[in-house]
Amino acid sequence: MSRYVEAVYEEGVFRPLAPISLSEHQKVRLTVEETTEPSPVERPPVPVNPRKEELRWLATNSSPYAGQWVALEGDRLIAHGPKLSDVQAAAAAAGVENPLFSSVPADNGLPFGGW
Fold first, then answer.
1. How many domains in the chain?
2. Rounded CA separation 66/104 (Å)
3. d(CA 28, CA 76)
């Protein structure tokens, strides 16, 4: 039986890029085909946007928008209002591709501790 398995060569050992099911010490025949494209292991990681600026804005500036939806891009308020659909439409009209939408809780006084 033949299977095609991609592997990366690291420190003298071929390491499969995906799990494969083989018995311990099973012998296999390898044909090495060099590729010019970098393997997924060598590709730079995709940057992650942790939304730190948006979360900071919510923590410090959201109180005037209690009970509303807000659309944020970085530390900039794009739109706000009581209906999410209206805020989404306003953000799209402003040309913002990937805003953070958040519902700002209404201020009900002291927080509930509960039992």
1. 1
2. 5
3. 58
Sequence-distant (6+) residues with CB within 8 A of 4 are none
Alpha-carbon span 50 to 7, nearest angstrom: 32
Distance from C-alpha of 79 to C-alpha of 72, rounded to nearest angstrom: 7
Beta-ladder partners of 103: 69
Instruction: Give pTM, 2 decimals.
Output: 0.55
Catalogue the E-assigned strands of the chain.
7-10, 13-16, 69-73, 76-81, 100-103
Kindly state whether residue 23 falls inside one of the protein's structural domains.
no
Mean pLDDT computed over 74-99: 95
Domain containing 84 equals: 52-103
Q: What is the pLDDT of residues 89-102, one digit of tens each?
A: 999 999 999 999 99
Residue 44 domain-assigned (yes or no): no
